[in-house]
Design a protein that fits this description.
79% helix; mainly alpha; 94 residues; 3 helices
């Protein structure tokens, strides 16, 4: 029950913090979130490597790695598009 309480409080705290961030700081904030997602890939790889049950643990580890990679690649693509919007007009937005 304590874990659920902490999770719900973290949701509300995260929402309040993100709504207070000015728009000019959203891109650096997203880049930091992408770096944290990269750490989750390392954690997923470690969990997939150190498994006791052959099938279920390997399947869950591969699923964790795949979803973390999708998250990282998508985050960097969105960050790249946002940075392209702030570029000059002469160099094609970059």
């Amino acid at each position: 029950m304590t874990g659920l309480t902490v999770f719900i409080l973290a949701i509300f705290l995260g929402f309040e913090l993100i709504t207070k961030v000015p728009p000019t700081l959203h891109t650096p904030l997203m880049s930091g979130a992408n770096a944290i997602s990269g750490i989750t890939i390392v954690g997923a790889l470690t969990c997939a490597y150190n498994t006791g049950s052959p099938f279920l643990a390997n399947f869950m580890g591969c699923l964790a790695v795949a979803t973390a990679m999708i998250n990282v690649v998508g985050g960097f693509m969105v960050t790249d598009r946002m940075l392209g919007m702030f570029g000059s007009k002469e160099d094609g937005g970059r």
